[in-house]
Amino acid sequence: MDLIFQGIKKAFYLLVTFDPEVMGITLLSLRVSGTATLISLLLGISTGTLIALTQFPGKRFVVSLVNTGMGLPPVVVGLLVTIFLWRNGPLGFLGILYTPMAMILAQAVIATPIIMGITVAAIQQLPNKLRLQILALGATRVQMVWILIKEARLPLLAGVMAGFGGVVSEVGASIMVGGNIKGYTRVLTTATVMETSRGNFDVAIALGVILLMLAYTVNLILTTIQQKEKNR
Amino acid sequence: MPNSLRQTKKRVCWRWIGAFCFLMFFLSPSTFVSADQRSVILATTTSLQDCGLLDLLIPIFQRRTGYFVKTIAVGSGQAIAMGRKGEADVLLVHSPEDENQLMREGNGVNRRRVMENDFMIVGPMEDPANIQGMRSARDAFRKIALSSWLFLSRGDHSGTHAKEKMVWSLLRINPEGEKWYQQTGLGMGETLNVASEKRGYTLTDLGTYLALKKNLRLKVLAQGDPLLLNPYHVIEINPIKWRKVNAAGSRAFSEFLLSKDAQEIIKTFGANRFGSPLFTDTGKKREILGR
Fold this sequence. Notes:
heterodimer, A: mainly alpha, MetI-like fold, B: about 290 residues, D-Maltodextrin-Binding Protein, domain 2, 10 strands, about 20% strand
């Protein structure tokens, strides 16, 4: 128990003193996971809306595939992305293995199905007649899709939170494709793993506390937007 | 202009500024800097990163040569596997048999000894197998096996795991599948924690044990057998076989490790924190294994 209090104390100490290394690690976490979430947002919402609004044979199969993807194990994603990005692998010419870029890629692969799955559910739960009504009022197809996405913004924001929460807290893929390189690809989760194996449990807990605070801040902002929209 | 309209305009303006800052933050170029000719991929063991030695050596190397070292700290087995695929430029590992295999396959060049220390057998305070003070690793392992007291193996193809398997095979004991023999599949630090919690024996390197000692209920019971010598070698990956290897960078790094300055740091590393140095340099000749 002592360790936990020590860890929390350490977290505040590191934050108040603006410890440059911890600040760098925290900022990188936010940046990598934020960018990955942005990419997943574009891919997930567009593809998710497309799946939800169109009818095609095997749709049930595709949707269940997407829903399974929501539980993709990060280590497996990490391993696959690593193999692709290896120097002698199919995408080796990019030369991005062990860079923040590779971490963004892996995290986007993890977050996209989460956001896509929630998008499919969010769009499908809108009343069917809404589409007809919008079209009847003279909207073009593009306008209709845009209005539907806006209608579903509450669950979509929940999807964004789930996606961001999923990638900012994962460690398996980040450590594999990023390599936990000091000052370059070390993020909060990989640093926590390293400090744990170094026996610096207080620092590890402190990093965990900082990660929670970061996630809380991001979610607070998103929730504020979400609830404001709701009260309109 | 009516007041409400001005407010709306103001709000819209803030929104755009917010969105702009947000995008600038995420899309700023530094996130997207990718690898260049000046980076060297070093695949090494977790123990060297965890004890802090690399944090001391690498900044000096980077300052002197301008190379950027990407340290990938994994088990020796995985590090050697990366070398075998040409996915690392230089290895710093401690698993002599696997290293020899790598050299025979022609994947490595210029294998040189950088430093060494010892493995030791640690176990619960009350020492149920009664191995305290034994020098021979073989005798100590045999006694643990005979007592059927819990022994924790890394089971992860690391250098430590390879050494442990070597001792068992010298005894012609196959502990796999025995009730008293459990494989954690984890790193040294985690395995020590498991051994401490379950009151079992395990084989460990000195550095990790000393670093974690304050949280462990384990003590050193047997050490000093030449068989438990733990040599670290640097290996450059063969640039003729693997064309994408940064040959100049890997050569520079291995030269640096063997330089007088680096050897001096290695020789004294840990003396302040742990009371005694964690490694001995190459100058001190002892029985050489695996070479």
